[in-house]
Amino acid sequence: MKVILINGSYRKGGITAAALHMIEADLNEKGVETAFYNLGEISMSHCMGCCTCYRTGHCGIKDDAERISEIIAEADGVILGTPTYASNVSGLMKDLIDRGHFVIEQLLHNKACVTIATGENYGSKDALKVLDNLVIYSGGVLCDSFAMNAPFNGIDAVREKLSGRCSKAVRKFMNGLQDKADHPIQKLIHYIVLNAGIRPLVRKKGALYRGVADKWEKMGIEL
Ligand SMILES: Cc1cc2nc3c(=O)[nH]c(=O)nc-3n(C[C@H](O)[C@H](O)[C@H](O)COP(=O)(O)O)c2cc1C
Question: Can you give the pTM of this predicted structure?
Answer without folding.
Answer: 0.97
